[in-house]
Amino acid sequence: MARRSRTRSLQVFDTELSADAAEWCPVPPWHHVLACGTYQLQQGPHQAPEESTAPSRIGRLYLFHFRQEGLRPPLTEVQRMETPAILDLKWCHMPISGQPLLGMATASGEVQLYALRDSQDGGCVLDPWSGTKLGPDRLALSLDWSTGRGDSNSVRVVSSDSAGCVNVLGLGEASLTTESQWKAHDFEAWISAFSYWDTQLVYSGGDDCKLKGWDLRMGPSHPTFTSKRHSMGVCSIHSSPHREHVLATGSYDEQVLLWDGRKMKGPLSETPLGGGIWRLKWHPSYEHLLLAACMHNDFHILHCREAMEGSEGPCPIIASYILHNSLAYGADWSHLSLDSPPPSSPQEPPKPQGHQMEATGHLKIQYESPTASFDTLLEDEAGRYIPEPDLPSATAKPADPGLDSPSVSCLLASCSFYDHMLHVWRWDWSPQDMK
Length: 435
Known about the structure:
CATH class of the largest domain: Mainly Beta
Number of helices: 2
Structural class: mainly beta
CATH topology of the largest domain: Methylamine Dehydrogenase, Chain H
CATH superfamily of the largest domain: YVTN repeat-like/Quinoprotein amine dehydrogenase
């Protein structure tokens, strides 16, 4: 059966500085909150690029609110703050003292935590909560929380840095402290992550082309395994929150590898994606779906069921988002459901289709996977998405997975580096087609 799958751009936002991290809040009822981080090298006004003086690294953290309401753009900026350059962002998967926490890995060598709270105007805002410096002369490159399956016992953060170290940080009463630090890789340790099923297990990947495992109960003197299966630097790792022992890794070698954590001599599958795999994200509820940010080759969604069940061969790409024009770095799934039609604003009722097409607008390409065909969307003069109005209820028909109308719509965010763009988009698909 042919798989029906379509990606559509909802809104594009210029972050001004190079964007490299986009993260939806996983904690209810804040699923509509999106954070985006940026990283920018800043030369002095009279400094030539070849001069030895190190340039400063600046960043900016954005906070957005997503709401589908009539014809208004769904994404609204609610906060921005100047920070050191940001290399990674991750939300804690559960509230701490009733508040969502956002972790930030920065070029100043710090892991900083921010607490999300409701603001007086009915929105939300991030406040500094705690932080710690990993050490001198290093960049914090990645972070992960131990709470991937909602385990509140001994909440910890793992972070990797440019000195090749892995750092395990403990969360105390409004404090973040270093529990252990060790030299894990010969060069930059691009990525570190917990096993969400046993948070005493930590994985790390480095520019030395090695993927390593660590058991915190045994101490960091020796890794539990070292894999050289990737031929270039390992820069993405994500433990499946749905299936015990399943691990996804990605590398500058443009390969996504799926692993059984009990058998690390060889991967379950190897999938070439044509670009360095900077980030990998398992879908929060569909266990077989894996989102990949592929640097020079856009964003792709893989279907991994057959690989998990022991079939040989690469995981098929079932959808792609190709509207970015620069390095694909940050990407994340939202927990929000788009299955219900967006509510109409009482102040701005939807206009008939004919009236909408008469308004000033520009057609924008959208990609339809996997047939490589293209469709178009309407944008206004400011480049904002003009959604298609809903059909009157009297003529609406229920979705049928066997027809052209997909039965599930997922909300995603992605960002790209040199063009400093954040995209919010949807993916329409039918789970029945994937069986």
